Fold:
Amino acid sequence: MPPFKTVYHVSWVDTDAAQVVHFSNYFRIFERAEEEMYTQLGLSFNEIQKKYNFWLPRVEAFCKFKAPAKFGDELEVYLTVEEIMEKAVKYAFTAKNKQSEQLVAEGYVVVVAADKEFGHAVSIPKELAQKLEVYKNP
Structure:
């Protein structure tokens, strides 16, 4: 199946004084895509926390910047579930300028299922892993 795709409109708050997306904001953009992917799968972060009693904290993040994105740009953001491990998931992201199709950033984030009460890593339920398979890289 193709990766999950969403469009992100670069707003003023995303940019620095040169009206270029500040490097740290790519992680916010990637996280927004992750949230929208879960919504597409019929889930929300709140539902996941209530149903499975765990959080999904980030334990690793990487981003490579390829070209500047600017205030007013529309970015196509693609999310692929790169790997589903026993207690963690690795998401890969790419962001392209919608009009020019130029790659502006690519990266990944690793999230771990962490018990809400004790904070230790727990297994990802098979039901959740199966839903994520829809966007898994073949």
About this structure: The two ends are 8 Å apart (CA to CA). Strands lie at 4-9, 54-55, 58-65, 74-84, 88-97, 103-112, 114-115. Residues 4-135 form a domain with the Thiol Ester Dehydrase; Chain A fold (CATH 3.10.129.10).
